[in-house]
Design brief:
By secondary structure, the chain is of the alpha+beta class. It has helices at about 1-20, 50-60, 75-80, 85-95, 110-115, 145-155, 160-170, 175-185, 190-200, 210-220, 225-230, 235-240, 245-255, 260-265, 270-285, 290-300, 305-315, 330-345, 355-375, 380; strands at about 60-70, 95-100, 120-125, 130-140. It is globular.
Length: about 400
């Protein structure tokens, strides 16, 4: 037993090392702002609001404001992964006077009220002459989406204020509706997206139009009549937009939903895997863990399956929360530890700190579990993995090893 705890302790140390060498936590000397962007990203102005407005007037630019809180996860994510991107920084620094405002400190409290900030992060573009909002957006976005948000602020017919007012006045022209849909998709207003897309199609637009397909691909979610149209006319859509793009759309929208409905669709890449993972989730929800384990083991062992895609789905199924782990039956708990090891060993992105953190947390919880119960750690967790990589390393797959001297 001592040898086994030593081995598990070593794995836990490795997992923790992997976790903390691939991530860092920002610190603050003042205690008033813990979210910061690096120098090559957006340059945020931290002067008073009056000085920021004055600077924007002098430079004839809009003011861009990122309204955030220090406890907001998506705010932190945007600050660390999007605001720091060179292409994002180049665009925003050139076109706006940029400000980052904490809505719970200093001037931010009143400014958040003035600009009706109710969720975080909220992005507001302001005319410095009138100090009125011309465009606003919100939520986590990719760098591409975020640049599109900024471009929209510079084009009067794509600004949120214009889109909302013009839609209310009854404009249902195709180009206008497509701009309206893309904007509402960026703020996760899915009901508005669905309504406007229905209006677009009723007005004569066709999914086979590249512009309409692009909007459909970006914004329309789930198993809709439009997705069924793609399935029914699969060969036609593949010839128009390419098999890879069509398969990706079908795969994305069938990760969840009615199994019978999904099975009735045409054959496309990842259809089998999506259906099988729906069965796995159904088994877990009904406490049929042996069935879930059998199906997951088969997916991992299947050489025809893209294992990175399998891993990406497993990440959400096999998490072990210390708060609820005591309620997990032993067979499912220990298999989740085994699956988390498979993920930690084989995930292509070796710098993804989350996979190492999840694995470390699972190992720690397992040690506590066996210590309290007196049960043994299953042999398959202590032995070398039978599938995938045999050793735990942060070394990327595409990094060749240094030749040994003969």
């Amino acid at each position: 037993m001592k040898r086994r705890f030593f081995l598990v302790g070593g794995l836990l140390a490795c997992a923790l090392t992997a976790t903390f060498t691939s991530s860092c936590t920002p610190t603050s000397n003042t205690g008033t702002e813990i979210i910061q962007s690096d120098n090559y990203g957006i340059h945020f102005n931290h002067d008073s609001w009056a000085d920021i407005v004055k600077k924007a007037k002098a430079e004839n630019k809009l003011v861009f404001v990122d309204f955030y809180t220090q406890w907001c996860g998506p705010c932190y994510n945007m600050a660390k992964t999007v605001f720091t991107q060179p292409n994002v920084g180049a665009f925003y620094n050139k076109n706006f006077v940029c400000a980052k405002i904490d809505t719970e400190n200093g001037e931010g409290i009143e400014l958040a009220k003035k600009y009706k900030v109710r969720s975080f992060p909220t992005y507001v573009f302001i005319d410095p002459t009138t100090e009125e909002v011309v465009h606003r957006s919100q939520s986590r976005q990719t760098d591409k989406q975020f640049i599109y948000t900024g471009e929209s602020a510079m084009i009067p017919t794509r600004r949120s204020i214009y889109l909302e007012e013009t839609y209310q006045k009854g404009n249902r022209e195709a180009d206008f509706l497509m701009d309206y849909i893309i904007y509402h998709n960026s703020i996760y207003a899915q009901k508005n997206v669905s309504t406007a897309f229905d209006e677009l199609i009723k007005g004569g637009a066709k999914l086979t139009d590249p512009k309409v397909w692009n909007v459909f691909d970006q914004a329309i979610q789930g198993i809709t009549p439009y997705l069924k149209e793609v399935s029914t006319n699969y060969d036609q859509f593949c010839s128009l937009f390419g098999k890879e793009a069509v398969d990706a759309k079908l795969s994305k929208e069938t990760q969840y939903g009615d199994l019978e409905e999904i099975e009735s669709l045409c054959n496309f890449e990842d259809k089998t895997m999506n259906c099988e993972f729906i069965r796995v989730n159904q088994a877990i929800r009904t406490n049929k863990y042996d069935d879930a384990i059998r199906r997951i083991d088969a997916l991992i062992a299947n050489p025809q399956m893209d294992q990175q895609k399998v891993i990406d789905k497993l990440k959400f199924i096999t998490r072990i929360s210390p708060m609820y782990s005591k309620e997990m039956p032993d067979n499912w708990f220990f298999k989740c530890v085994e699956y988390l090891r498979y993920i930690a060993y084989n995930n292509k992105d070796r710098e993804d700190s989350h996979i190492h953190f999840e694995y470390a947390t699972a190992l720690e919880d397992m040690i506590k579990r066996v210590s309290a119960s007196g049960k043994k750690i299953p042999a398959q967790i202590l032995e070398e993995p039978t599938i995938g990589k045999k050793e735990y390393s942060q070394r990327p797959d595409d990094l060749k090893r240094k030749p040994r001297k003969k």
